# Entry
Amino acid sequence: MIENFLAGSSALFGDPVTIAIFVFGVIGGMLFGAIPGVSMLTLAAILLPFTAGLTPAQGVMLFAVIYCTGTYGGAITAILFNIPGAPENAPTAFDGYPMTQQGKSGKAVGAAVLCSAIGGVASALIMMAATEPLAQWAIRNIGPPEIFALVFFGLAVASSVGARTIWKGWMSVLIGLLIATIGQDPVGGINRYNFGVGDLAAGIAFVPAILGFFAVSEIFVQAERKAGGTYKAPKVSMSFPTFLELWMHKFAVLRSILVGFFCGILPGIGATLAAFMGYGEAVRWSKDKESFGKGNLEGVISSETANNAATGAAMIPLLALGLPGGALTAMMVAVFQMHDLQPGPLVFYTSPDLIWVVFAAMFYANLSILIIGLVETKTILNLLKIPFQFLAPLILMLATIGAYISRGLVLDVMVMFIAGILGYLLRRSGFSIPGIVLGLILGQIGEQNFAQGMQMVHYDLGTYFSRPICAILIAAGFITLLANIYRAFAPAAQPR
Amino acid sequence: MKKMFGTAVFAAALTMCGSAYAFQCAVGESSMDKPGGFPERALTMIVPYGPAGGSGQVAAAMAEAVTELTGVSINRDHKPGGSGTVGMTAYMAAPADGYNVLEHIDDAASAHALDSSVPNPAEDLIPLVVSQVTFSQIYIRSNEDRFTDWPSFVEWVKAQGGRATIANVSKEGSMERVTMRFITDATGMEIQQISFDKGAPRYGALLGAQVDALFEQPGDVRNFLDAGQFKPILTIFDERPGVFADVPTHREMGMEFDPLLRFRGFYVHKDAPADRVEWLQWAFQRGYCEDSYQAFNESKFMTVIDSYRDTDGAKELITRSVSQYRDVYKAMGLDVK
# Structure
């Protein structure tokens, strides 16, 4: 493995054109990942035709690098402005933005940079060591019932995040789940709650919903404070987390690497579920659950470690089996095909040089997050000095463009503003915006897999429990639920 | 090594037989004057599916071919969702000036068959060209030992008493669901269809033995065929295509129904200016003949049968499909509007 890695590294850095492409991918991914709506997918779609003029290794490597750095890029805007660049950065905003408001933006951004790099590098190393056996294990043992059970397990802790009471936490999750049912059902294609509006048949898209619930509702909240004379501009903090602070979260990092990697390896799942599951596990294992959603550094650490840990993992089913896990990895298939190659088991025999250039590039791309992230952070944090009366319209404009541009539908802009108003009202009432977003995103993934799973077990719920991984996850989810209910009724919990 | 050799032989066979259908460009003129200067700017192509899927790829290949031919750029605007309804709605609302074209698949025909208020792509739009026509097959894992061919598969499925599974896209009224209905009616077997709307989990389900079989079109699983991982056991087409000469057709297996085909094509508003429509027809039909597009189609197994339909041919294909779907929907007891 080390010999191959060194060979891949020398191929990567032995050619100035390849180095230039690598640097372009690193910076481009970060930039496009950071701008809401204009995601790394946009950059990838623009670049796709140009990859025909590159060597196969350069083309695939470029996309792999964009994938790594683009997944990190959205964390910055999530933390500083409550605008997640992409759905996989949404859980980062849960605690990152409250930290910014508390004058701890430097710690949050520093942790995001470092943990994205750690998650990505760890994932790349595991990918290099065991791509083929891991891919085979995943497709044999993880099907729709297991994925549903994983989502159920994740949702079981969602009520603990950010709400005034556990019941409002649950109501928030249920609102998210309800919103997730809008549009065609994922298996039968039957329209639900679209009220004759054709565009709603596709359901509520993640990006406008997230922009509305986070960015727009936050502007309303801050505008209210400004009008009431209680607005306080967030203090710009340049202090990064200390080594000791990060060391205290070593188990959260390790846990998120495992969770993120596991989610990433599943075909069609990817970084979004990884980030939400990583965050959920941080809540589950914390002794101070109530602090999540209110500025707990571990929330940022867990989310950013997990989503970048999913990047290397998502390459495993792609390279070993030819199964792309998401839109960007699907575009990589097109890059392979442009050069008369097919990802899959044969590519390890037919193009080992290409594979190891890609592996090496992903490893170095994740290291680059650390270097470039630390350099750029000092500059980016100064954006917080922009006065609210200038910043708010700028955020609204960016959010509106971001909501529209992802699908080119005016409906999505309307959805964003409705979500913003709804989010504002619900926050005033003590409901949890993270809970709603968790319900919305996990609900869509969970429903689809539940329906597919039910078809696989012939509509016999009991059969779910005959699958060991599924049974363990569902049982653990129920235990968490019961523990939550106990805590809600326990006298010590009442003051909340 | 043995597997590698087998795979290589299979891949070589595919390559040799890949162009079984002799291609001849049906459009003679290699250039055409722009009517009144049209198009003066880039065209917009609405694609009702994501960029990475079959529609996204054929849209990109055709856009590239038309641009090579005419020098006119084509911006692709992907509007996925609702089995193509979001893209269709957006297209019908776009100006009918010839600058907006639509990519769509046979789902547009089946949607109209189920609900006549949905646009009929043969009448409410003008097909510029249908550039991909393909058939479906049933696949099993190559290392499967419970059954090895169609007869043994049917026998095994019947013995499972309805517990056997097949992965497909079995949304209400879809081509896959209707065809499976034909098959189960003809064979008397009962099989649970598992609907996966994305390719990767669908193919992963067969690779990982989560399901027993897969319903798919050959171009979409070509890499699994090349790698020797999937094996076709039934071709749902009237004759054996040369590439799959050893795979029986549904008719040979005693199933008498007209196969439903998967097709992808390009359309323009029916009330777009006639001279512009004529230019677009030339550009897209001639674009089909471009080397880059032909290479793309070959890589997708789209040269195995005749993939080309001009405007009249496309209308005939769509109209026949609508009629077929409507008959089946009524027989299935669906609410045909």
Summary: Chain A touches chain B through 54 residues (CB under 8 Å). The CA atoms of residues 119 and 305 of chain A lie 4 Å apart.
